[in-house]
Amino acid sequence: MKILVIGSKGFIGSHVASFFKLIPDSTVFECDVMVDYEKDNYFLIDSTNSDYHTIFQNTAFDVCINCSGAASVPDSIKNPFRDFTLNTYNVVKMLDSIRTNQPGCKFINLSSAAVYGNPAEIPIHENLPLNPISPYGIHKMQAEQVCQTYSRFYDIPTCSLRIFSAYGNGLKKQLFWDLFQKAKKGHDIELFGTGQETRDFIHADDVSKAILCCQQKAEFKGEVINVANGEETTIGSAVEIFYSFFQGTKKVHFNGMVKKGDPLNWRADISKLKGMGYVQSVDLYDGLLKYYLWISQL
C-alpha cells in the first residue's frame, strides 16, 4: 500500500504521516512546500505554483490524503484569494493530476465542520444544509464539490472528511495555543464569547485513526463524513480543564463578543464514522494534558 500525504509538514498532516508509517505493509510518501533534505520519499511543491503532475506521473499510489491548505478563519477573511487558492484551487489541481495520470488512486480530502456554519439542529448530520459563515468555510465547501465532480464525471474515487475541532501536539494556533500565550503574560485572561459556545473536540491521534477507518471502509463515491467524537463541550469547560494543569489560578473573563466567522454550537452526528469502526482513544482531559506537557517543553 503506497500512501501519499500532501501537507505532511502541517499540524494534522504530520500526525497522519507518522500514524500511517506504523501501518504494516504501508509505504508513506510525503509532500509539502518546505524543504526537507533528510526524509526519503519526500516531494517538494512550489508554494506559488504547485504542480502535482510529476508526482503522479512517476509514482503509483493507492491512496492520496490531502491534509494541505490554509486553516485559519481570520486569515481567510483578510486574504480570501489566498485561502481559495490553497483550499479549493489546489484540490482541483490534485484531482486533475490524478485523473490524468492514475485515476484509480483513492483521494481523501480533509474538509472542515466550518461548512456547516451555525447549523439548524444539533447533532449535526452530514445531510444538513450547508451554511458556511466565513470564506474558509465556503472554500472548504467548494473543495467538497470539486471532489464530488471528479467522482461523478470521471469516476475518481473520492471522499471528504469534515474535521471538527482538532487539537494536539504541534498545534500553534487556535484556542489552546492562545490560552498558553495569554497565561505566559499574566493571571487575568480575557477571551471572546460567553464561554457557553460549544465545540466537538477530537485529538489529532484520533483524526488519524478516523482517516484509516475511512480509507478502509468508505465507498469513495464523493461522499462526506463527519470526523469528531459526538461530544459537545463548552469553551468554558475546555478552558477550565486546560488551565487546571498550570501553576497558579487563572482568572478568565469572557467579553461577550463573537469573532466574525466563529460558529456558536457544534456537536457532530458520527454514526457514519462509528459504522466504519471508529472508537475514540483520547479523551479531552488526557489530550489536553498531553498538549500541556508538549508546550511546557517549548
From TrEMBL:
Record-linked InterPro entries: Epimerase_deHydtase, NAD(P)-bd_dom_sf
SUPFAM superfamilies: NAD(P)-binding Rossmann-fold domains
Keywords noted in UniProt: Isomerase, Lyase
GO MF annotation terms: dTDP-glucose 4,6-dehydratase activity; UDP-glucose 4-epimerase activity
Domain NAD-dependent epimerase/dehydratase: 3-228
A Pfam family it matches: Epimerase
PANTHER family named among the record's database cross-references: DTDP-D-GLUCOSE 4,6-DEHYDRATASE-RELATED
Protein name: dTDP-glucose 4,6-dehydratase/UDP-glucose 4-epimerase
Organism: Dyadobacter arcticus
